[in-house]
């Protein structure tokens, strides 16, 4: 059986001179702490510090990168132990699910998932043979045994991973109990929340009605009036800031913004709250609310993240049987230049406002996003996102944004993951790709070596702290 | 005069370490048989085994890659011996046409045509000097003499090229006489057809009326009713399968699909058959028929190929004088995510269905196609097509699809050509580019060497056999 | 303080073998004269030959590449000495502005501006330390002293830069007095104009009314009738040709063309001249005028340049305070295939017509522009433009156009700049990137070394002379 080895030069350019430069840059940041300002880990893990059960439950069943690929090759979600809509687990034995996964591991060749998981297998669990049918049980046993030990509890791993800050993401209808519990526990891990109010802003969200009720209760505001609804957002933003939040996040299909008069807002909101908004009005309401969120960010200093462009739940059958986030979200062409104009007309020239733009449509890097971020004081570029959070995707991001927006209008790396164990792997990949990109610029004499040294530290820890308003350690 | 040399390392990366890996991978597949599941060679060549006449008739006049470039630089099609609309040959002497071509050969520097033709010149005809004005006659004479010999008849070259399978493409109104003749001849070459019913599905196709008459006659069905029309397709699909077809092919401007009720289908078809369908209805009919073809593929197991996005016959003057396929087809932006949804709602989760998507719009690789193919069991990605069937185009294809869809949701190489002599050259280019891509992943420690060895065989012969339902030799 | 060094291998690929090839190619064109057929330098400089004042006035305040980046990071335009709307200078001391710039110089790491300016600092002014806060005054003093000397007057630098031809760009309402003065002066520098009639074609241009009055006066035609308006264009084109112009230039949001009847043109023009054209009619008028310009080019032989796709003055506040060209132009998705069709239907097959297409939407390179230019005799591809006039942008341009359109449907380099001192730097970057691209093709055995040698001369001086109808020196 082939050995599993993480090569120390992995992801660096093959040219020897360039690789040597990349190595030297990497040495400057290899041990830097992990700052994770945007992600989807479960705060309950850190609140309860309960052990995870097994490899399938921890690594496979929650990871839509994994089961989407397996599903595309005819493996059913039931066979992988993926919960059904409502949360019911299939009858599949977790070990059998893991064996199925192992038998299809070759499908991930050349994908970031393979790189991340091999890092987890080798570095976190110390496994030294590759995954396949013959090693599946060995993996399952080694991982299971490790997870039962104190050293693999969430908080222990958090410390081991050298995480300076980890942001989770909660909805506006979340009571933040887990974050309160973390703080009450006395544990020193820096876990913060992020305000993601999509489900109380998007009238077409499947949880809109339910979450508006909770939103009202948690905020203590009358959310049936426009003024009260805005006040509820302000209240909840403050609640989130009390749990460490420095950022909000917004994920609609388009980044459209609007600038309606107060009377128009009130009339539109009345339709929304009355359940009478049609599709165009729902879109307009989301657009207006992006502008309102920007306005509140100017007031309270929270960094605003916009993640548009995903056609959610494209597979209707699968959505009916298994619900959201099952690998069936497909990007779509996204337009920013006209979409953002109403908001930029109002706040575009405010240096105090920080809006981070993300995209699933790489064509916008050179055409729209880098030119926008290279001009407007309030705009910054988020890192290569989701499908593009990969070696080639990150490389394209740098190649297509740097010449117009520079490095300093970017914000470092986001792991954006719920796969906690893969966080070090993901940050490591990003650091290596940045080192390789900078090394090429140095090798081509487009950048001095000392400039690259400066930049790799900025890309790893400096920019993210400034973009997300995080404290800079002494 | 400079020598013409095919360097053994051509198309491999220049970095010595990476090149060494590429060489080792190439050695595994350099001699592999050619499997050509999608192309446009003329089955009459293999039915009659008649000799080709001369270089102009064989290599120049039918190759729109060549004369489009010459035309763009002011050379008339008449001067190149290209037939006019209706088939009349211009008065140009074939040797004079060849001399004109030779005098402009420098225009092809850096293009795949140069690479393919140099391969043909050197490997098939053994010529060892470069083409230019001074060598034009030498070329013309050497090629002409060769073509007159038995070793350069179509069947002899087919054997020499080590072709395991060659698929041609015929319309639904084709009687398949050449394919029958091939089978009746006792020759063992494996030449199969492909069902391409565009001209009886697209009401706006210039041959629609004519071909519907033949379609009716060949199928023996009443194609004036919706039920009879569908039955005729089923009948003809069976006819094609009897001539070896394992696939269908569909080339409309958009990949739009539809899911109409039976009553809606009948009403729409009545308009189409009555010549009363407007542009929107013609588009809707094509959309519905893509869905019907998918449904039939589920029944009869034929692989479905969708080739959208070409604005055909963009040059109106040239279309009037010279007809179709004269280098004036221009790609257009293509949308897949909403276009395919109606069909995917019906059949997207069927692992038994095989739909291969192609594109001329490379922006869809990372944004739409890789995410779709990395999720839906029925979808696979066709190789870089047409303008993108080139070293840079293939490299972009791998760089932009692998991380999201993996290698295993792709289907190997298609030469897609009517230029029979260039088939070995084209497959060789594809193999070399894949070797170079895999070599880079190995050199960057993103893939183990044994994985790359496995993959290059899959990319060359494994995936294509599975995607097109071809037998795997013992 | 780090030294500023221009490495002789800068911008060449890092692989030693490829770099050696690039070096050898570069040696063939490093000393070639500069041919600049499209740019925005001020002809008054060469007419008056007056000295420039200081570093801020010469290098910083007019360069929107520089202040857009600084502005994006919160530096005000006032602090940089950028004039306000109407031309009033802010109170900022030029030396203070330069210090502010120097303190932010790190923002340009990895951008073409850094490369261009370092070239200017080192080569033009002989400065050997890098720019930062501590060297700001040294820079300001050295540059100021140099500018006061005769060797740094515009004409002296023109000669020192080895410029064979420099085209400026003037509007249809320009009296060309500076060009006349240059000719009257007896100076031998070859400075020519370019006919850019946007402000008298686009009814939505803010100077339309004012410039139509001047256009009428300068042409002596009755521009209130369609026939007179066209005659005025013919008259002014002749005026421009008398000042050396061989080209026209057109920069609308879209490349849309139209082919209206004479009666339709007259009716549309009546609305335009009457101030009654709505947005759609204004767009249609611009479209028709592109076709008219092509028709006139067929008559008078002027090369036609189309620069579409910029959303001008996206930042409304900044436009109000500072006017046009302040770094707030943002590209937009651009469609060519249908947009150009009406004009191509008329003139597409004319080999005597030369239309050069530019784009800010790189997705069109492979999808639309290379296929169009690789077919239509009248079409050529302009070089990577504006945001894409950069090492990565130029590399993508070659990688994405060469395989379909070849090298010979491109037109060499445009510096497109008003930053006169950076012209040698910009041409040098383009030559180096082309050398690197050709070197890769040679290293990968896709091109013979003698073909690359031929091509680098074509890309540097041959193609530009032919595309712009310039004389070829003996």
Q: Can you tell me about this structure?
A:
Chains A, B, C: It comes from Novosphingobium capsulatum. Chains A, B, C: Keywords: Isomerase. Chains A, B, C: Its EC number is 5.3.1.12. 3 copies of one chain form a homotrimer. Chain A is α/β, with parallel strands linked by helices. Chain A folds into 2 domains: 350 residues, Metal-dependent hydrolases (TIM Barrel); 102 residues, Orthogonal Bundle (uronate isomerase, domain 2, chain A), CATH 1.10.2020.10. Chain A contains 20 helices and 11 strands. A 4-stranded parallel beta sheet of chain A has the order 6-7-10-11, covered by helices on one side. In chain A, helix 13 crosses helix 14 and helix 17 packs parallel to helix 18. The mean pLDDT of chain A is 97. Chains in contact: A-B, A-C, B-C. The interface between A and B is large, with 48 and 48 residues.
Blueprint (SSEs and pairs):
The structure is a homotrimer of 474-residue chains.
Chain A: H1 16-29, E1 34-36, H2 43-48, H3 55-60, H4 64-72, H5 94-103, H6 112-124, H7 136-147, H8 154-160, E2 163-167, E3 170-171, H9 177-185, E4 191-192, E5 195-196, H10 198-201, H11 208-219, H12 226-242, E6 247-250, H13 262-273, H14 279-300, E7 303-306, E8 310-311, H15 316-322, E9 330-331, H16 341-347, E10 355-357, H17 363-373, E11 379-381, H18 391-405, H19 423-443, H20 449-467
Parallel strand pairs in A: 1-2, 2-4, 3-5, 6-7, 7-10, 10-11
Antiparallel strand pairs in A: 8-9
